[in-house]
Amino acid sequence: MTSYEDQPTVQLRALGADPAGGPGRHRRAGRPRPYGRHQPRAAPRLPEEYPAEDAVANGEPGEPGGAPGEPGEPGGGLGEPGGAGAVPRLPARQAFRRFWPLTRGDRRRLVLICACVIAAALAETAAILLFSDLTDNALRQGSLGAFWVPAAQWLAVAVLGAAVGYTGNSLAVWTAERFVLRLRARVFAHVQDLPPHFFQRHRQGDLVERLTGDVESIEQLVVSGVVSTVSALFSTVFFSVAAFRLRWDLALVTFVLAPLFWLAARRFSGRIGSVARDERVADGAITSVVEESLGNVVLTQAYNRKDAEERRLGREARAWMRASVAGARMSELYEQLVEVIETLCVLAVIGLGAWEISQDRMTIGQLLAFAAFLGYLYPPIRNLGQLGLTLTAATAGAERLLEILDAEPAVSDPPPGAAVAPWRVHGTVEFDRVGFRYPGGDRRTLAGVSFTARPGEFVLIAGASGAGKSTVSKLLTRFYDPGEGFVRLDGVPLYAMPLGFLRTNVTLLPQQTLILHDTIRENIACGRPGAAEHEIVRAARDAAAHDFITALPEGYDTRIDPHTARLSGGQLQRIAIARAMLRDAPVLVLDEPTTGLDALAARRVVRPLRRLMSGRTTLMITHDLTLAPDADRILVLDHGRVVEAGTHRELLALEGAYARLHGSGVGALRGTGNGTQEDRSWEDRSLEGRSLEGRSLEGRLGGSPAGTGPQPTLRLGPI
Ligand SMILES: Nc1ncnc2c1ncn2[C@@H]1O[C@H](COP(=O)(O)OP(=O)(O)OP(=O)(O)O)[C@@H](O)[C@H]1O
Asked: According to the model, what pLDDT value does residue 144 have?
């Protein structure tokens, strides 16, 4: 039997698609999985191929959700990663329509690529006819003179084919990569606007996989899909015309059997879709486990969790292997079925040819020439059948990506023209009967919260864990909009001003020190891009960071990252303070600025913090009440409500919630709770509280320093 694999077909192979689910990690490593020896090409599927279309239309992820604040809306709607069943099924047509606009700017190039593809198919058809002419005339005549003209023509056609093939391929790869680049940038930009709870609810590794592997698989759906369809269609038409010109009766037999390829592909389409989906999910899961394990390596080692982590990875790896093997088997099964169909077709043609020869209507040479020609004809026909498979598999990646793209940001800029014009912010912060419920949350996190912080005031927000303190900071920096009431800056509701303007004027210093994977200089400079060197150094000096930075061998050029071992937690925090200094915003939100630091480090941070706070409206969220006497006002939150407000003295005198909080913390340590030590410096109090905190732990653990017997247990509030 003719080996069609060896036949030259003009395809833009560089765009070769893997219908088993796109370029997952394993595929990028080079394991080919063609569902046919000739690279399948994507084509739009017929409507009847989508029995689930109605079901999909009902829950189509393309529809924007409701208003922010409602369960599942902003950033919601994304199925729980790790379960293929959670991913909504999307018709390929819709997926194509969603991503096609991204080809804008490259459409002329796409037309040129298609023209190259068509020209290449024409050149190949011409080559086939010239070959037939050569065998029929020159060889039969046995004259070398009859050889030269068709040979020269054949060579010219081959050169032309090579030229358009090269041009088309180069352009196609370039266009495809540009598409991937654009798509990735678009998804990445969208992801960055998503609210915090989106990232809390989704495994980072799975999101990484969506931004890499899944993004690439969309390319097969769109750019390669269009080029492949054009290629397969035109090749089929040209080769068919040539086949009918050679022997119409044999060509007819060939075409009568051709739908078998399409039937086989259709039969496999559903299963390949689900296998591809499983593979994409398995890719995401394994990336997540590896990423989480590496991030938690200290926990793993400290708690002897090595075996447990290995088992976890093993579980995901086995699931991945199962999905991968299922995909490979499906591929192989389809491949072999197509082989059998091809054999059947060739046998039918040879059978008819044998009958024609027996009737003296055909020579053996003609029959062999036609059989050889089938090697050209079947690949594009077969590819047309396989396009659906490629598309189904690529759609699995599209579904996962659209889940991200359809997750809505919790907040957005006011419409153009509706935004309040920027002004010089004084720093009055106002919460006016604010109520808030997290998307998907079952109860209100804040209810009727009202307070005003005037320019330059220091307002401390205290309360038990889970009372809603950090939520106040998220509303003020507009990660979310309140469900009820208003948050205002200088009397203007936050939603009425551009987000960029708000965040330029309200600096957040979160609980977790945010460090970029870059030099110390860049880490400080990102507070105000374009800042001059002397401004960066001044900020570092004010943050008490300049000395330890210059003591490093590479000084400000030292590269750091969030897990850097070169700097301590307190030093990283001081770099973050320097960044905030440089930003020079009139409003400052400090969320547990000394959490995680030991007493000495906290003490070193306190002084620069005071410099940072000076002259700015400051909202400090903290458990550490050693700072409370310095506050102009203290708000005590309990179950999302402000239950007490006043100065340190006033609240202690009330002997209510604040006094209890204070009594369970530093007050108890001082044994007074009446603020008699308020004249002592903040730094000293901080140091004392934290030193005692250490002692309290000793006490709890039953340690008895210097063998003095059991110590009383000291309670320090949340540790
Ligand atoms: N993304 C979220 N989705 C649903 N609920 C959330 C989300 N984030 C926080 N919550 C809930 O809102 C409540 C208040 O959380 P918040 O972080 O504001 O408390 P907190 O007072 O700052 O606590 P802590 O002092 O422990 O940091 C908690 O019950 C918490 O479980």
From this structure: 72
How many Å separate Cα 245 from the centre of its chain? 53
What are the CB-based long-range contacts (under 8 Å, 24+) for 185-190?
A: 186/102, 186/405, 187/211, 187/215, 187/401, 187/404, 187/405, 190/404, 190/405, 190/407, 190/409
Q: For position 633, what pLDDT does the model report? A: 93
For the CA of 471, the closest atom of ligand 1 is 18
Q: Quick one: residue 491, left, alpha or beta (phi over 0 = left, psi -120 to 50 = alpha)?
A: left
Whether pLDDT at 618 is above 50? yes
* Residue nearest to ligand 1 atom 31, measured at CA: 466
Atom of ligand 1 nearest to the CA of 623: 25
- What secondary structure, in 3-state letters, does 635-663 show? EEEECCEEEEEECHHHHHHHCCHHHHHHH
Cα angle at 246 between 242 and 251, to 5 degrees?
A: 75
Residue nearest to atom 26 of ligand 1 (CA): 465
Closest Cα to atom 3, ligand 1: which residue? 438
Q: Token digits for 663?
A: 């009594």
Phi-psi region of 686 (alpha: psi -120 to 50; beta: other; left: phi over 0): alpha
More confident residue, 704 or 192: 192
- The set of residues, in sequence order, having a beta carbon less than 8 Å from that of 114 and lying 6+ positions away, is 226, 227, 230
CA distance 169 to 113: 8
Name which residue sits closest to atom 25 of ligand 1, judged by CA: 465
| Average predicted confidence (pLDDT) for the chain | 75
- The pLDDT value given to residue 664: 65
- Cα–Cα distance measured from residue 390 to residue 36, given in angstroms and rounded to the nearest whole number: 11
Cα(640) to centroid of ligand 1, in Å?
10
Q: How far, in Å, CA of 691 to CA of 62, rounded?
A: 55
Atom of ligand 1 nearest to the CA of 640: 14
Q: What is the pLDDT of residue 2?
A: 34
pLDDT in tens, 5-33: 333 332 333 333 333 333 333 333 333 33
Residue 35 has pLDDT above 50, yes or no: no
Nearest to 505, CA basis, from 431, 435, 449, 588: 588
pTM of the model: 0.65
- To test the pocket of ligand 1, the residue of 78, 198, 438 to mutate (highest count of ligand atoms within 8 Å of its CB) is 438
Q: What is the mean pLDDT of residues 602-618?
A: 82
Determine what percent of the chain is predicted with pLDDT higher than 90: 19
Nearest to 654 by CA among 120, 456, 662, 180: 662
Greater model confidence, 9 or 226:
226
- Alpha carbon separation from 367 to 242, 249, 252, 349, 371 (Å, rounded): 15, 12, 14, 9, 6
Strand partners, 74: 408
Q: Where does ligand 1 bind, in terms of residues with CB under 6 Å?
A: 197, 200, 438, 441, 445, 463, 465-471
Query: What number does the ligand 1 atom closest to the CA of 200 have?
Result: 1
Query: Domain-by-domain residue ranges, the chain?
Result: 4-25+93-405, 429-515+586-707
Q: What is the CATH number of domain 429-515+586-707?
A: 3.40.50.300
In this chain, the answer to whether the domains covering 4-25+93-405 and 429-515+586-707 adopt an identical fold is no
In degrees and rounded to multiples of 5, residue 42 shows phi and psi of -80, 145
Classified by CATH at the fold level, domain 4-25+93-405 comes out as ABC transporter transmembrane region fold (1.20.1560)
If you take atom 6 of ligand 1, which residue's CA is the nearest one? Answer: 438
The CA-atom distances, in angstroms, between 246 and each of 133, 243, 327, 374, 644 are 10, 5, 40, 11, 95
- For residue 450, is pLDDT > 90? yes
Ligand 1 atom 17, closest CA: 470
- Reduced 3-state DSSP string for 142-180: CCCHHHHHHHHHHHHHHHHHHHHHHHHHHHHHHHHHHHH
